[in-house]
């Protein structure tokens, strides 16, 4: 019971919490609009931003949105000290999972895809003849 | 105080100052993080292993009938529902169960809206036959080696498309007594070209799966220009892999949304009966944590599937 009181008090005593929630919601909508802007500038019609750059920017915006939701809506701003021992290991493991699989992707790009491109180019040349 | 009682008192001071419910939810969420990281990570790896080439590339959202606007609306809906959950918790904590019930109701409606939009999106995939295992993988210019590798799957595609075209002509004729002349002409020409025959005094081989795929895409383009609905499996290189990833990721996410909605429905019923009490504040916070996590997953799925 003591623990329950302690944890619910951790964020709800904060003044202007309602306003903070509204601010975060607006920030999330602005971030979504920003993703669209990056996507627009990377589209084939405009193409002023490289697709890879836009992809990284959009993922960056998504990470920022996730941080905002986690930090304010999930109360990590106030509960981080009680939960970091759960979140840090899973964040490391999540990143490791992708890193461990990366060599496959890189090898795929280096070998299989390159071969396919060479074959496709050869085929295109044959078609021209 | 006896030694035993003192030990018990000290024991109660130990541990994390969190309710067991909230701790359990966080433990559950970290397992969910690993689950969705595996799904999204696999998607990224599959996607990055496909070269960027005019013919051989990862399917663009337009190619697979995925509307960015629909994705954006769903993003907005989930963000709004996340806001209403925290507001429900805020109101419940400050002793206003009526407002809390109202916000839970709004969250439920927004969650249902999300699933409704997702259902509509799935329907468009079924209508265009963009389903795992049904999409043509070959187009001309992809290379002899790939055509050889995919020949068996290509022939299955050719058989399926032939049956679809024959069925479409019969069905359209029966239902409407009319098939658009341009579409009908293109289908009939393709059906003839799919069989081997004679061209002058020479043997004419049947079209290859890649050539059939290209002609089917042309028919779909004609039908689209003439506003004529026709169900034919399109040819989209790596389309099957895309469809598998899309349905796996959005399907599991939608299941999570549904799970959350069940709990919100229970809380709403409790609120409507006037049974939402101070001790339910913790429950609202716990389901809120789950709901925000579902929102975070969508925050990553939306750009990865609908944008670049």
Structural write-up:
The complex is a heterodimer of chains A (129) and B (308). In chain A, α2 runs antiparallel to α3 (51-73). By secondary structure, chain A is mostly helical. Helices cover 88% and strands 0% of the residues of chain A. Chain A has 2 domains: 1-74; 79-129. Mean pLDDT of chain A is 79; it is low at 1-8. Chain A has helices spanning 2-12, 17-42, 51-73, 76-128. Chain B is an all-alpha fold and 308 residues long. Chain B contains 10 helices and 2 strands, in the order αααααααββααα. In chain B, strands 1-2 form a two-stranded antiparallel ribbon. The interface between A and B is large, with 65 and 62 residues.
Keywords:
heterodimer, A: 129 residues, mainly alpha, 4 helices, elongated, disordered N terminus, B: 308 residues, two-stranded antiparallel ribbon, 71% helix, 2% strand
* Multimerization status: heterodimer
Number of domains of chain A: 2
According to DSSP, the number of beta strands of chain A is 0
The radius of gyration of chain B is 27 Å
Shape of chain B: elongated
Count of individual beta strands of chain B: 2
Strand order of the largest sheet of chain B: 1-2
Spatial gap, N to C terminus of chain A = 82 Å
Average pLDDT over all residues of chain A: 79
Helix/strand class of chain B = mainly alpha
How would you spell out the order of helices and strands of chain A?
Answer: HHHH
Main beta-sheet annotation of chain B: 2 strands, antiparallel
Note the beta-strand portion of chain A: under 5%
Question: Low-confidence parts of chain B, pLDDT < 50 over ≥5 residues?
Answer: none
| Rg of chain A, nearest Å | 23 Å
Largest interface: A-B, 65 and 62 residues
What share of the residues of chain A lie within helices?
A: over 70%
**Low-confidence runs of chain A:** 1-8
Mean pLDDT of chain B: 87
